[in-house]
Amino acid sequence: MTLFHQCIPCIMKQIQSLIEILGLPPGEAMAVMESGMRMMLDRGDSITTQHILRQLYDHIHGTYFPNLDVFDPFRELKRDANLRVSVILPSFEKVVAGADDPFRMAVRGAAGGNIIDYGAIPQGKVSIETEVARIPQLRFAVDRVEELRSRVGGSRTILLIGDNAGEILFDALLVQEIQRLNPAAELYITLRHAPIINDATLADASFLDLHPGVRVISSGSIYPGTILAETTPEFRQLFGNADMIIAKGQGNYETLLHEQHPGLFFLLRAKCSPVAQSLGVSPGDLVVTRSPELPG
């Protein structure tokens, strides 16, 4: 998605959150804020929120933390989210197992878990435990679960593009239900290549309880989303050849919504006005939908 005027204050809030996590002194904090504002003012027509955030991370890393091999300000917050979800997930697994429709409940859990997004909602503003308890009562504002189910049944290769730490444990539970529907399917979960906000990388994969047949790989993405042209050749080949793709979260929706892959589904919780408006829903709503570029 292109940059909307509503994106500007959102980006500034993310910069402020990053400054607080890093504990930058006032002078450096002001310099980072000014750098972020310049990046937005100097943007080209095609620049996105994802580009600006990556540029900002690289600037802060190179300027203030040049001796760090890996710049991951949200490392401890991601670990905390993974641990907290791992503690409460068994109770939600029982909810899924006891549901009239376990697959639908698992899809709902994967969408509801997308609330663990520290780019859209600052850390500390989300009670993971409270949000998980609410999932069984949530409903989809855009509900194409039956199309999703049908596509699962007819697919040989299924790719799930992950989003955030903590959230990916709900994705793993959905993958288990996908395997029950289609045991013969070849399943892949892809995560980010480099740390950005609280997006999950391969370092977070150790928290996933997956069947040995499920492959977890890097997409090559260094953005809070998936800019297809800037992923690895291997990922692009997998994306093109997969019978079905489930893209999780707002960032993946924003960066992939114009792709015309016939098996591409989006599963997310709308968390800002531009995304919600593009989907015809309200902020906070759960959505499972197809690419708007596809007919029907």
UniProtKB/TrEMBL annotation:
Cited Gene3D superfamilies: Uncharacterised protein PF01937, DUF89, domain 2, Uncharacterised protein PF01937, DUF89, domain 3
Matches recorded under InterPro entries: ARMT-1-like_metal-bd_sf, ARMT1-like_metal-bd, PH1575-like
Domain (Damage-control phosphatase ARMT1-like metal-binding): residue spans on this chain: 4-286
Matches recorded under SUPFAM superfamilies: AF1104-like (SSF111321)
Name under which the protein is recorded: Damage-control phosphatase ARMT1-like metal-binding domain-containing protein
Organism: Spirochaeta lutea
Native organism taxonomy: Bacteria, Pseudomonadati, Spirochaetota, Spirochaetia, Spirochaetales
